[in-house]
Amino acid sequence: FSFRASGPLDMRMGSEGQTAKDLIELCSEGELAEIIWKWGEEPRAKKIAFALKTASREGLLTDTTSCAEVISSALGAFARKKKIHPATKTFQALRMAVNREQFHLKNFLSFLPSIISEGGKAVFISFHSLEDRLVKQTFRSWAKSCTCPPSFPKCVCGKIPEFRLQTSKVVVADENEVSENPRARSAKLRAVEKI
Length: 195
Fold this sequence. Notes:
With 195 residues, the chain is an alpha+beta fold. It contains eight helices and four strands; from the N terminus they run ααααααβαββαβ. Helix 2 crosses helix 3 (45-57), helix 2 (29-40) packs across helix 5 and helix 6 (101-115) runs parallel beside helix 7. The relative contact order is 0.12.
């Protein structure tokens, strides 16, 4: 998963399915750019996809560090001066695509209400905006009562909320926690209770 040390360009959380290297080789340049844009929210996705496809054809993508170097070179010196490494968003996108993370999170959230008892709580810690957005929207829909259009004079749907929000706002680590654990800087916690 990391480009800090050399390792296989795999990114799978298990042993099944295609690796990140397979994904780069098998996708078209446009498909790869779409993955990097959608899952990594990387504005220079097309430039990165072009560089990765070129490096792949030339046999230059041998491990995680070579992949990170290709991405850094594609983005130039300006990108290397930023706080986060230039390859961070692309590695996130490749990992998410290889493991189908959003699909699995949506699937889990779809059956979660059926496995929580009354008074039970669900707590999620997300580490990037795509996960957090999905959890936030799902929790809000569970806690919402009426789903009628605003133009209706009164409620006709009769929806009763299944859950109560336990965190009206997202909970993030404070400065002390981040100084003790730098990885906590991107953690976002949300919770609901079944009613």
